[in-house]
Write the structure tokens for this entry.
Amino acid sequence: SSGINAEYGVNRFSNEDRVALMRFVSGRSRLPSDIADVSQRFQVMKTDKSRDGLPTSQTCFFQLRLPDYSSEIIMEERLRYAIHNCRSIDADNYMLARNVENGSGAVEDGII
């Protein structure tokens, strides 16, 4: 194990990067307005994937899954690539549509 600290890369992220990370690990681009709606704690898990590979996530469990990295710089580069290029899950659009269907679709921040 290299002992690479995931906080190193995240602490260097811009706000845009942090929003992308939130989307990558949770399927949402922002936290719920009510903290009681957060059912899972954020977790960083080590995987046995190939060294210096791309990170993955399990959005149902709010997990960031990282392989072993040879340096913090490589980890940061791989994480940044993954969070900005994986767009297959986006629960925000689902929640917005559900709120509109339920009659609670108030316009907030310019989004319906």
Remarks:
- DSSP finds four helices and three strands in the chain.
- Residues 104-112 have pLDDT under 50 and may be disordered.
- Residues 72-85 form the longest helix (14 residues).
- The CA atoms of residues 24 and 83 lie 6 Å apart.
